[in-house]
Amino acid sequence: MIRIKNEKQIDGIRKSCKLLAALYEEILPAVKEGVSAAEIDRLCKSFIQSRGGVPAWYAENFPGAACISVNEEIIHGIPHKRKVFRSGDLVSLDIGIDLGGYISDSAKTVAVGEISPRERELMEVTQKCLDAGIEACRAGNRISDISHAVFNTARAAGFGVVYEYCGHGVGLSVHEDPNVPNFPSKRGPNHRIVPGMVLAIEPMLTMGTDDVDHLNDNWTVVTADGTKACHFEHTVAVFAGHTEILTAL
């Protein structure tokens, strides 16, 4: 069931999202060579809890305040202390905050040191996919319009698109209906986008295959061919005349 949010609920979600945006402003400069994922996770936990929030992934029993995925890790990377960033890494951070029962969700990928031109393009195109998906997320459109926008932008640049994981409703729970795929599909419902929807739009692109594997830790999702991946995400709220990016400062 899709949960249509009222004005009070959207305002609560917005506050959570702005706190998350402020968190990214603080922690992204700390993602650099020689720093461990565990150190970044501790910064996230401290920031969130000192401001009255709770890391949203704790409700999912995830072992960290932040999913930190490196290179071929697409999503749900565990922030181990042995995961130390090196020059050339692509580091994706996926973080959510529960602020008084209102959930935010956003992801960003950053480069550590020098990366190749094609890897830089991967980051740029993934961001363009997110922008295109948000542009298509308008009242009166359908979820498939978001999917087509993301998929067409990625494929035009020759990048893989992760099929197995997708965006979703968010705000009162971490994962809500509807699913927001990053690829066009004739399977499943194709809901009309209406005011009051709050969605997490999150393109996940790869340098190679669309296929994924899962590590034995029961969390980490990796590219099946070992190529690097990239992930960007915003939480947005749909209104009658516009769509607001809640997780932008």
TrEMBL record:
Chain sites annotated for binding substrate: H76, H175
GO biological process: proteolysis
Lineage top rank: taxon: Bacteria
Catalytic activity: Release of N-terminal amino acids, preferentially methionine, from peptides and arylamides
Documented EC number(s): 3.4.11.18
Residues bound to a divalent metal cation 2: D105, H168, E202, E233
Molecular function terms, GO-annotated: initiator methionyl aminopeptidase activity; metal ion binding; metalloaminopeptidase activity
Function: Removes the N-terminal methionine from nascent proteins. The N-terminal methionine is often cleaved when the second residue in the primary sequence is small and uncharged (Met-Ala-, Cys, Gly, Pro, Ser, Thr, or Val). Requires deformylation of the N(alpha)-formylated initiator methionine before it can be hydrolyzed.
UniProt-recorded name of the protein: Methionine aminopeptidase
GO CC annotations on file: cytosol
Location of the Peptidase M24 domain: 12-238
Residues at which a divalent metal cation 1 binds: D94, D105, E233
Annotated gene: map
One Pfam entry name: Peptidase_M24
EC main group: hydrolase
Keywords: Aminopeptidase, Hydrolase, Metal-binding, Protease
Quaternary structure and partners: Monomer.
Family statement: Belongs to the peptidase M24A family. Methionine aminopeptidase type 1 subfamily.
Cofactor(s) recorded in Swiss-Prot or TrEMBL: Co(2+); Zn(2+); Mn(2+); Fe(2+)
Cofactor, how bound (note): Binds 2 divalent metal cations per subunit. Has a high-affinity and a low affinity metal-binding site. The true nature of the physiological cofactor is under debate. The enzyme is active with cobalt, zinc, manganese or divalent iron ions. Most likely, methionine aminopeptidases function as mononuclear Fe(2+)-metalloproteases under physiological conditions, and the catalytically relevant metal-binding site has been assigned to the histidine-containing high-affinity site.
